[in-house]
Write a structure and sequence with these properties.
Strand order of the largest sheet: 1-3-2-8
Largest sheet: 4 strands, antiparallel
Structural class: alpha+beta
Helix content: 40-55%
Oligomer: single chain
Number of helices: 9
Radius of gyration: 18 Å
Strand content: 25-35%
Low-confidence stretches: none
């Protein structure tokens, strides 16, 4: 299964329209949404609303056999629901979804080993800035997590109940940005505990991310958390008896 993400900036004053739009999808048009996504081969579509220093953003996450192809099909579709969906998002973000490359899809640059755990997994996503000129060093640091620091990293996953973490690089008007996607018992709560942890590995992670991403995790905990607005999954067909 392939995965990707994108970041969409909400136009000033349009956040309430985005919330109303998602409510319309979930309340009255969820069946049409499912038909649309099944038609283009998407199996998972999630959307978060996250306030940032430069304004509110939408984080989109997709899973499917070929999400990039699926997005092109949605951009070219003349189906009524897809036209309505594109028009609403255009009003909210200013992005013309019919233009080639209007939506920059993220590249997966890091994926942790999946940790088996009991209980349902909660999905979580957040924007991770990348300091100017440090994209290469950031990716080298991610490689280090699964090389010389792998045992410490797996202990970190277990400590915070994280089944998996994925990091993407997305092209934006302000340069490359990262998106962290995680699943686990309580990923948002895990981030808060991580910010306060005295574990040596956690302290090292925070120092590296302060340098590479400009994130002060203590201050970040006072900011509003990303809110999961849409969590659509294709219905699994029952196996034939």
């Amino acid at each position: 299964m392939a995965v990707t993400t994108t970041i969409l900036n909400i136009l000033p004053g349009k956040t309430s329209e985005f919330i109303d739009f998602i409510c319309d999808v979930r309340a009255g048009r969820v069946e049409e949404h499912g038909v649309s996504r099944n038609r283009v081969g998407l199996e998972v579509e999630r959307a978060w609303l996250e306030p940032t220093a430069s304004g509110d953003v939408i984080i989109m996450y997709y899973e499917g056999q070929d999400p990039a192809k699926s997005m092109r099909m949605l951009e070219e579709s003349t189906e009524d629901y897809d036209l309505w969906y594109r028009d609403r998002l255009h009003d909210i973000t200013g992005v013309d979804f019919c233009k080639a490359d209007a939506v920059a899809l993220g590249d997966l640059v890091f994926e942790s080993p999946r940790l088996d755990r009991e209980g349902p997994d909660v999905p979580y996503a957040t924007v991770i800035p990348i300091q100017p000129g440090l994209k290469g060093k950031w990716r080298q640091w991610l490689d280090e997590l699964l090389a010389s620091r792998e045992n410490e990293y797996r202990s970190y996953q277990e400590r915070y109940g994280l089944s998996i973490e994925k990091l993407f690089v997305v092209r934006t008007a302000d340069g490359p940005a990262g998106v962290l996607y995680a699943e686990g018992e309580d990923p948002a709560g895990a981030m808060a505990r991580f910010a306060r942890s005295h574990q040596p590995f956690d302290a090292w992670m925070r120092e590296e991310m302060l340098y590479l991403n400009g994130i002060d995790f203590v201050r970040r905990q006072t900011a509003p958390a990303p809110e999961l607005m849409l969590d659509w999954k294709a219905k699994r067909r029952k196996a034939a008896a």
